[in-house]
Write a structure and sequence with these properties.
It is built from 10 helices and 14 strands. By secondary structure, it is α/β, with parallel strands linked by helices.
């Protein structure tokens, strides 16, 4: 029996990635699903890792459910929408860097917060609640408010609430709405996991340390600023900011790099390790992921030491 619950909230999509001979490989991925995947790979069995989203009633939705179950990601909180389906995206690679194309207009996940009672029930059972800027961006504005209120209540009740801004400007109505939504999310996050290149382009941060300090001022309890494999900035218990550097890794496919760092980092923190040690584990996991194609490396192939 599981003693604790990690709940990830967001949109899972069908992923098409380039394979050999001009063919495409189909899988399933999405920022919050990717992090749940690597949390599951890194946490001991007493933790249940569950996903909260909304799916359709179509064959792709059914196969996604089976995929999650087969990989020990609980689906008991997933709701269904008979009028919609799952979103789809493709990844094209150029020297290890990726570009994406999306088809998500009819994604059922856009309505994941419409059933507020179901969302509240799931959050109430969780020890850790994880969501992202993409989770917020795909929702109607009133539904964003509902999600943020429920997560804020969870933080006030002593639960660990985690937010990765994962900034995607094209998903938001405009830049002002986006900045407001991200700032509101900071207030409900006991842990924030921003990426420096995104943050610098939107908020004008001049350094990873400035980025970390801004998130702390906005209300986040603990901050780790990722930096595309470069040095990371970590807030410490005394309120200061520590910078850590790692050996560089040349990527085969950088898809899922930040999400997998999150998974390794959070699993280490939940196992009682300090932020600095957790960041080392996050980097170790991400370094393995970017050396393989696609967002999800088989869980049993992730090495933690």
């Amino acid at each position: 029996m599981n003693d604790k619950l990690f709940l990830s909230i967001g949109e899972a999509m069908v992923e098409l990635s380039q394979a050999d001979a001009g063919l495409w490989r189909m899988g399933y991925a999405g920022d919050t699903l990717n992090t749940a995947w690597y949390v599951r790979a890194c946490l001991p069995p007493e933790w249940e890792v569950a996903y909260f989203t909304r799916l359709g009633a179509d064959p792709f939705s059914e196969s996604m459910l089976e995929f999650l179950k087969a990989n020990e990601i609980a689906t008991r909180f997933i709701t269904r929408d008979p009028e919609r389906t799952v979103g789809l995206y493709s990844i094209e690679l150029h020297d290890g860097e990726r570009s994406f194309s999306y088809w998500r207009g009819q994604s059922a996940a856009r309505r994941l917060a419409d059933d507020e009672e179901a969302l509240a029930a799931a959050i109430s059972q969780a020890d850790v609640v994880y969501f992202s800027g993409i989770t917020l961006a795909i929702l109607e504005p009133s539904r964003r408010g509902a999600l943020l209120r429920l997560v804020g209540e969870a933080r006030a009740a002593g639960k660990t609430t985690v937010f990765d801004p994962n900034i995607r400007p094209r998903l938001w109505e405009d830049a002002d709405v986006m900045r407001d939504g991200l700032s509101r999310a900071a207030k409900v996050a006991s842990i924030a996991l921003p990426s420096f290149d995104d943050e610098a382009s939107v908020f004008g941060d001049a350094s990873i340390e400035q980025c970390a300090a801004r998130w702390l001022r906005s209300g986040a309890g603990e901050v780790v600023v990722k930096n595309g494999g470069g040095p990371v900035a970590i807030s410490t218990a005394d309120g200061s900011i520590l910078t850590l550097s790692f050996a560089s890794v040349k990527p085969v496919d950088s898809t899922g790099a930040g999400d997998s760092f999150n998974g390794g980092y959070l699993a280490a923190r939940l196992n009682g390790h300090a932020p600095e040690t957790a960041a080392v584990q996050g980097h170790r996991v991400a370094a393995q992921v970017i050396c393989r194609p696609g967002a999800l490396v088989p869980q049993d192939e992730i090495q933690l030491s």
